[in-house]
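Pipeline run #58 for the internal structure catalog. This entry was flagged by the ingest filter as a single-chain record with no existing model, so it goes straight to prediction. Upstream metadata was stripped on purpose; only the residue string is passed forward. Reviewer on rotation: M.T. Logging verbosity set to normal.
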Amino acid sequence: MSTNGRSRMRFVEWILASLGVLCLGWYGLVQFRAMQYQRDQAAKLDHDIAIQHDRTAEERPTIERPTPAPRKRSEHELIGRLEAPRVHLSVMVVDGDDDETLKRAAGHLPDTPLPWEIGNSAVAGHRDSFFRPLAGIKVNDRLRLVTPHGEFNYAVADVRVVDPDDLSVLSQTGQSSLTLVTCYPFSYIGRAPKRFVVRADHVPAEAAKTGG
């Protein structure tokens, strides 16, 4: 190989190495921002729970308080912390399903009920980050959603793979349930062709304590 050829080869190698470093740096920055966001939201959840606890303690049973009027949700409002203990999943959930939200947290689908409302509440997350542990989820596994409005427990009732346009998984049945959605296959490179869906039914507090 001529001197010019070797020089061009070294230049190409330098360009490729530089691109690799830039990609790694960008990925690291995205991960750092996501973890920082998770920590901030976890601290906010602890603060909101403490405030709610203080308000409850101050209430007097002889004083009738009016039911607060429904309010419009703020953008990216904190929902709570989703946990699946057996597969070591723990992630903060905020309202919204846009790309920016899903880079930093799991996102509650705004068109579905909130966890403290009756209905099928849906949460989406990326398969290559926060929802990767769902690859090991099984029927009867327990899920827990800790929110400022209380703790909600669920038991996994169904795990399935569906097409992206199959909206039946978000249908309402009149019961309290939680549906988790992520892309599938988990190891797929690029835009995954399917969706991995976990549906869990609400478990009363008494049954959750006993594991029943």
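catalog note: Residues 78-210 form a domain with the Sortase; Chain: A; fold (CATH 2.40.260.10).
catalog note: Strands lie at 78-84, 89-95, 106-108, 120-124, 142-147, 150-162, 177-184, 194-203.
status: ready for reviewer M.T.
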